[in-house]
Amino acid sequence: MLRTSFIRKNREKVLLGLKKRNFQEIYLIDEILILDEKKKIAQNVLNKILEKENSISKKIGQILNFGQKTQIESLKEKSTFLKKEKKNINLKLRKIVQILEKKLNQIPNIPDEKVKNNSEENNIIFQEGEIHCHIDNPLTHWELSNKFCLFDSNLGTKICGSGFSVYMGKGAKLQRSLIQYFLDKNIQASYKEYSLPYLINEKSGYATGQIPDKENQMYFIEKDNLYLIPTGEVPIMNCYRDKIFSRTDLPVKATTYTSCFRREAGSYGSKVRGLNRLHQFEKVEIIQITTQDSSYSSLEEMILHVKNILKSLDLPFRIIRLNGPDLGFSSSITYDFEVYSIAQKKWLEVSSISNCNDFQSNRLNLRYKTIKGHVRFCHTLNGSALALPRIMATLLENHQTENKINIPQVLVPYTEFDHIK
To answer: Which of the four pLDDT bands, split at 50, 70 and 90, describes residue 58?
Structure first.
């Protein structure tokens, strides 16, 4: 969340950033500043009332000590009047704060200077790997699944509805192997593993920026007032909510494997075939919590880490820096990793790595002490390392031959087979 002090000091920068995002409710910024001014005025009035109340209390005490009780009734009347005034101003102040917070919650993070606006294509900053097919007419991953019995979307639909899938046999083993491989790579890179709940309360969703922005895309259990997690980032970041680190404790690096649940309303056609888009999918997440001056070096480190994992799987991939309108609500800058699908002839997103600066930390109340003892808000970063469905899809398609699917060598110790046939 942006602080009102930041908005007031950097009004033009905020307006330019929101325009870069194609954010329509620009008028909210001036409304926020007006409300903040009203809040300050109301707080000043309240402070003066409190000062008068304290002064009257002292006078009453002095009168009682010296036995002069004739003035007490007059002072008590003033005190009663001030209490009524205090109650009224408190109600007014509470209402202002509620409206102010509601408006602040609608404002997304300000894009980094590197982020472009909507008039330009997303910037491809890196590409690696040969786009080559071993056979003339490659099968899509859902056709390969039918051929080798790896997963079944019809069973998922039978059990709970469209957008779910059942993995079986070597398909299930391959997915489990990928999860373990990703976790092992993350742990080797000093990310601490967490096993987390798949349910969160409203406060946790708010703290990382999913609520209210993505509330309609989340599954909600009304009876218990809980949400199914849309990503492992949410519960893992909330492990650190309301925490103050010393500077020497940072960076914090953590990883988790979770199922993720997203309603994905309005998704139709070829985009949702097979494993392309699911309501429930598996993902291995990494996060970092850093000081304000080191988050961009951490961002580069996370990008390199995911690069190396994709290289090891022998998949052609590219990295794209997203433009303003494509950024997530909490993100200041995001890099998407896309892998090429040889059978579908298109790029599929498999990871997003984002620096949120101190936007999430404001909501999380996540801070650190500098060497000089000053308290600052941390910077938070998150990324997929990696999301499973499209990795599975492209791995099956890109490594197929006429009669089998070859398994990358790095996965063989996990799968205990080097091909599927």
So the answer is: confident
> Of 206, 261, 260, 283, which Cα lies nearest the Cα of 238?
206
**What confidence tier does 65 reach under pLDDT thresholds 50, 70, 90?**
low
Residues whose CB is less than 8 angstroms from the CB of residue 12 and which lie 6 or more positions away in sequence, other chains included: none
- Nearest 10 degrees: Cα torsion 26, 30, 32, 36: 170
| Whether residues 52 and 164 fall in one domain | no
Ordered alpha helix ranges (H), 105-167? 141-148, 153-159
Same domain, 73 and 188: no
Question: For the chain, how far is it from start to end, CA to CA, in angstroms?
Answer: 51
Among positive and negative, which fits the CA dihedral 17, 20, 23, 28? positive
Q: How many CA atoms lie within 13 A of 379 on its CB side?
A: 19
Contact 252, 240 (CB under 8 A): yes
Report the pLDDT value the prediction gives residue 112, as an integer from 0 to 100: 96
Indicate the Cα dihedral angle 394, 395, 397, 398, nearest 10°: 100
Percent of the chain with pLDDT over 70: 95
Is the pLDDT at 268 greater than 80? The verdict is no
Query: Does the pLDDT of residue 267 top 80, yes or no?
Result: no
On whether both 84 and 157 belong to a single domain, the answer is: no
Domain encompassing residue 185: 123-420
CATH number for 233: 3.30.930.10
